[in-house]
Amino acid sequence: NNQVAPPVSARIPDYACQRHTPLQHHNTKFTDALEILEKYADLRYDDQDYSRALAFRRASCVLKSLSRPLSRLSEIQNVTHIGSHSQKVIQEILEDGTSEEVEKICADPWFQKMKLFTAIFGIGPARAKEFIAKGWSSIQEVRDGCTSSDWRIQWGLAFHEDLTTPVTRAEADYILGVVRRHVDRVLPGAVMELTGGFRRGKQTGHDVDILIMHPLENKIIGALPRLLQSLQSHDIVLCGRHERSTYHEELLTQNTKLSPRGQLDHFEKWIGIIKVPNKIRIKNDQSDKTSSHQLGNNKCNTDMKENKDKCENRNFQSDKNTDSCKRDVGNESVLYQRQEDTLDSGSAISDSLEDVWESLDKASSSSSPSHGNPREVKASQGDWIARRVDLIISPFSQFFYALVGWTGSKQFNRDARTYAEREMNMKLSSHGLYDFNQGKQLVASSEREVFDNLKLPYFEPQDRNC
Ligand code: DCP
Ligand code: MG
């Protein structure tokens, strides 16, 4: 039939945080290609110049939010975020099914090596380029030649195959359960959320991001070291690094951008690798999918396709009157009440904090963040697989901003922060929201309230997959 679909451009809001972006959408043949161009631009050009890469990501994000497959370029011709280069690629795919430029990039040995090397835990584009300059083209060559003393690179190389095997949802749930048991021991009453891609409904991920909070603001002091001790005493931790909080109030108003790489927040956190029994993954494997190496449809990466699974309703609702918030998980409803701190304010808190940091510093200077020699540990690996885990501790007062920030996606965050700045004269971060018009912070006691404060419609985590 010759019916021409009306242009969709009129209905597309400017920012990704104003659009539904589901995990499963209708335009993967375009978005896969655009995201290869994004990756290539990210790796190819100067670290400071992420703008080319972002242009492809923005175009891809718009296409992900369309409610139907794109059939003609004219439907999106006036969309701000789809620039001429992206339009050219889309047109090519509409006509031929593939893009020659993208095919070429996929076949480019330099690109293949960059992807291979930057997939190593601890290796960024600059180091990957050094490896290529040395003439290396395989992981084994890096293992043989790399002399870095960085714990991430050492463990990343030793456990590269483990760490590039996608983490399944079953494993993420298992890790959450293990951490929860230990958190209950060292920080009773704490609240935990599985964040990152899994919270957005993804069935696989490259790591497991867990956000931890306690309704008593000061209870979290020293909790993460205790948690790690507890995990370590059960032989769960392979290696990792504990980072102090670098948060201070002035950050709320300072003009800092969300960097394309690296987490731009100041929470106390632990970044590391833990062991997960193989049987957990294998259980999940029956329903798993394989990686694709097809060139024909411009999918040259090893991304896993996502299952179309509706994710749990893990939303928080606030009750403004009682200064509390409620989380619904299935039929269960959990109430979090902000509680009175029992610790004195002022010097008592800072003294106890200093004590904690002092003992932590002593501990970390006397031992490396890893346990044993990575190669030896790998050689004697039992029936388990190494998994990347991030544990983040947030004070209650920042929790819902932290939850939005750590749920992502990265692009959702970027757009939400740009929207806050340009449209609202506000500064949004994972620590809070500052309104320059009123000269004050806007508190949130639910995820919904974060959106309300920004005058944005609420989007479920599974609709933030831009
Ligand atoms: N994040 C961000 N900016 C970054 C890195 C991360 O805003 N530069 C936020 C958004 C991410 C979340 O933190 O969704 C977790 O980071 P991950 O890198 O783990 O991203 P995902 O969990 O989304 O991806 P994956 O499924 O591969 O783990
Ligand atoms: Mg993640």
Short note summarizing the structure:
The protein is α+β, with helices and mostly antiparallel strands and 466 residues long.
* The CATH class of the largest domain: Alpha Beta
What are the bound molecules?
A: 2'-deoxycytidine-5'-triphosphate, magnesium ion
Number of strands: 13
- Rounded average pLDDT: 83
Query: Based on CA inertia axes, which overall geometry fits?
Result: globular
What's the CATH architecture name of the largest domain?
Answer: 2-Layer Sandwich
> Proportion of β residues?
15-25%
Largest beta sheet: what is the strand line-up? 2-4-10-6-5
Question: For the CA atoms, what is the radius of gyration?
Answer: 23 Å
The proportion of residues forming helix, as a percent range, comes to 40-55%
CATH topology-level name of the largest domain: Beta Polymerase, domain 2
How many helices? 18
| Major sheet | 5 strands, mixed
Structural domain tally: 4
Counting helices, strands and paired strands, the structural category is alpha+beta
What does this entry look like structurally?
The two termini are 32 Å apart. Strand 11 (426-429) and strand 12 form a beta hairpin. With 466 residues, the protein is an alpha+beta fold. The strands form four sheets. Strands 2-4-10-6-5 form a five-stranded mixed sheet, with helices on both faces. A three-stranded antiparallel sheet has the order 7-8-9. It contains 18 helices and 13 strands. The chain has four domains: 9-106, DNA polymerase beta, N-terminal domain-like (DNA polymerase, domain 1, Orthogonal Bundle), CATH 1.10.150.110; 109-147, DNA polymerase, domain 1 (Orthogonal Bundle); 167-398, Beta Polymerase, domain 2 (2-Layer Sandwich), CATH 3.30.460.10; 403-463, 2-Layer Sandwich (Beta Polymerase, domain 3). Helix 1 (28-44) runs antiparallel to helix 2 (51-64), helix 5 (109-118) crosses helix 6 and helix 10 crosses helix 12. Bound molecules: 2'-deoxycytidine-5'-triphosphate and magnesium ion. Magnesium ion binds at residues 196-197, 205, 207, 209.
